[in-house]
Every structure is written in C-alpha cells, then in structure tokens.
Amino acid sequence: MKNNLGVLVVCLFCQIVLGQNGSRKPLHGQVTNDFLAIESGYVMNINANVRTFIGAGGLFDIMARPKDTLLFSGLAFQSKKIVLTEKDCAEVLFKLKLDLVNNQLKEVVVHKDLRVKSLDQNSQHYVDMQFEDDKLSTPENKAMLSDQTIKYGTDFVRIFKDVKKLLSKKEDVKEEEVTDIAFVEYAKDNFTKDFYTKTLNLKPDEIELFLMYCSNDAHSKQLVNPDQKFMLIDFMVNKNKEFKKAAAVQK
Questions:
Q1: E-strand stretches of the chain
Q2: In what helix (H) or strand (E) does residue 193 lie, and over which residues does it extend?
Q3: Best exposed site among 19, 51, 78, 186 by fewest CB in 10 Å?
Q4: Has this prediction a pTM greater than 0.90?
Q5: Mean pLDDT (whole number) for 205-214
Q6: pLDDT for 140
C-alpha cells in the first residue's frame, strides 16, 4: 500500500512538471555584436525559472514559449530583457544583437521638486543699462513716460510672471518610474561586491543577471530608497533563493 502511494505521488509530481513545461520547446538562439564575438554570459527564462550559459559563437539553448521573458547578462555586454513573440519561437535560430558595455551616464530618477532656481543676481545691470535715442529725435521726459511708467525701471511684473511660469513647470514634473537599469545601478552602488559574492554566494559574472532578475519584480522599484536599505537586503536574500533554484544549467 505504501509503495503504491509513493508511485502515485511521483506520477502526480511528473504530471505537474510536464504541465508547467509541456508547452515549452527548446529555443536555439545566438547573441551577436557588430564589433566583438560574444562567447560568455547567461540567459535566464524568468517564467520557467531556468537559465543557461552562452557558449562559443554566442549560441545558447533554453526551454521557452511565446510571452516568456528572457534576461541576457554578461561581463562583455549590456544586460537586456526581452519578451518572446510567436515569431521568435518559430525561428530555426533566434538571433539577438547586444550592445557592448560602455561608460555611458547612469540613468537618473527624477523626483517631483518645487525648488526654484534663484534669479541671476547679475541680471539687474542689464535692465538698468540705458540705450539713448538718436539725439535728433523728439525730446521726452526721461523721468516718467506718458503711461506713468519709469523708462529704465525694473519690470517686477515680468519677473513675477517668469517666476510663476517656472513654478508651473516644476509642478508639472512627475516622478518617473524607476526602470530596471536604474534599480540595477542603485543596487550596485549601495552594496559592496563582497555582499554579492560572499553573502549571496554569487559569481562575479552572475551579479548583473541576478539584479536584473530582482528588477523584474515590481516590488524592487519601491525599495530604491536609502531609508529602506534593510528591506532591500531582505528582499535580495529571498530573491537569491529563487535565483539559485534556476542554477541547473541546460545543455
């Protein structure tokens, strides 16, 4: 009786596994670059929770189906995330061009801020400069014009309008969504390499892929805040457990 129960449990487990991955097929792919042959790195299927190596010639094989999200990461190229289409999965050899790592400026997260830049203190002398009319023109009252305005006085109304316009523009600035790349850069800047290699036990070339994996969780965007550093650590520790489960490399 116990043996029959054990067989039943094994059969149910196999059915569950086959049900989850039965519709996925091997995706034969190749990553390329116009200037350098890519022969190392990782590809991870977020939905299937599996990952594989990029080998010689940029070739890789991974189980996938349409609408699966793939993460590409390596030391030589910039990390990239794509969602597979029906056409991608139907290709005999799926090809993807990747950009090499460069020193471009990091992405900046813009926050709503009503601060107004102070007016240039040296700008008043331009207002006070006098440009005399032609000496042959009709003389006029230099102290007060006919419309009761001072000819060379400071235009406070114009200054007020300019400040009001600047305030309006500042109020229209909305906080931008924290992107995947912004999260990755924030996490790398706020934790030492030892945290990833020793605490999380990641290989150096796995760090970028792991952070991209974390960024795929919407909750990660809410933790890009110095006041939530401990919550971010807890989040990454838990994510690392999931990441390790995908360590079985497909060959």
A1: 25-32, 42-45, 50-53, 59-64, 69-73, 80-83, 94-97
A2: helix 193-194
A3: 19
A4: no
A5: 93
A6: 58
